[in-house]
Amino acid sequence: MEITDIRHVGFFSPEPETQRAFYRDLWGLEVAAEEGGVIYLRGASAEHHLLSIHPGPGPGLHHIAFGLKDRSAIEIAADELAASGVSPIEGPHELAEAGGGYGFRFLDPEGRCIELSAGVQQHKNGWTPKRVEPLRLCHVVLNSAKFDETVRFYTEVLGFRISDWSEDQMAFLRCNPKHHVVSFNRASYASLNHVAYLVASVDEVMRGMSNLRHHGREPAWGPGRHGPGNNIFCYFKDPLGYVAEYTSDIDRIEDESSHEPRVWKRVPEFMDLWGTAGPPSADIRRAMAGDPDPGWASEPTN
């Protein structure tokens, strides 16, 4: 299976209009579509949307979408998953969500809804220049109560590769040269840790921080530079407590044959190589822990 990249993340919100305002007016996204009460927000790249906000009674992950190159790859992926004992929620089909495409969804070992898709509509124009312009998703970090099983599933079944470890606490996984597109953090329950949005440079990270400060929102952690991935970071909490990160300059692993995963010590000087961010506060650690997410027993309705 050859997953090409992370496409978008969807989450539930009891206050979708509040979150729409944050991500549109402060974070730098634009509304790409609104269908059936779901709000789809795009970045400055051609990707149809990076974030979908689904009305719901409380917070939780709706789904994560990864891309494959074409319809044939989707069919092959469905067959490979079936051979591994994973049944799709619904077989490969034309997707009804905004942006369309061809794909299917299934559940990972912790009940997260995962979408594989290809042929999604791309934007050709229509972007309004902004002070900060998220391009696309960089990565998503997930808290995992079944850490070892889940890492094995994503590597052995879905074809991700391990880039680095943070001791035995975190695993950083890639599906392309970018250091990581998904990471897992060992925890007592499954939940969304944070979503990272890629911007063009450290200047964009700093402009994003300045823009949110102008609107009365201080960084929850950062700016700084991580050890694993070497990426520049600055984290904020959105109005409902989801953690969003501006990031840039993430390492790329171009030579698959020579890369050996490194085990990083979990010490402050490796969490932030610059030493500018300080340790994450109790508040941001609590926000990154999220709320327990039981996953899906069946297909989400929106």
Task: Give a written overview of the molecule.
The structure is a single chain. This protein is of the alpha/beta class. The chain folds into two domains: 5-118, 2,3-Dihydroxybiphenyl 1,2-Dioxygenase, domain 1 (Roll); 136-289, 2,3-Dihydroxybiphenyl 1,2-Dioxygenase, domain 1 (Roll). The protein is 20% helix and 34% strand. The chain is built from six helices and 17 strands. It has helices at residues 16-27, 71-83, 147-157, 202-214, 268-271, 282-289, and strands at residues 5-13, 30-35, 38-42, 51-55, 60-67, 90-94, 102-107, 113-118, 136-144, 161-166, 170-174, 182-186, 191-198, 221-225, 232-237, 243-248, 262-264. Strands 14-15-16-13-9-12-11-10-17 form a nine-stranded mixed beta sheet. The longest helix is centred in the first third of the chain and has 13 residues, at 71-83.
Largest sheet: 9 strands, mixed
CATH class of the largest domain: Alpha Beta
> What proportion strand?
25-35%
Please report the distance between the alpha carbons of the first and last residues: 27 Å
> How many DSSP helices?
6
CATH fold name of the largest domain: 2,3-Dihydroxybiphenyl 1,2-Dioxygenase, domain 1
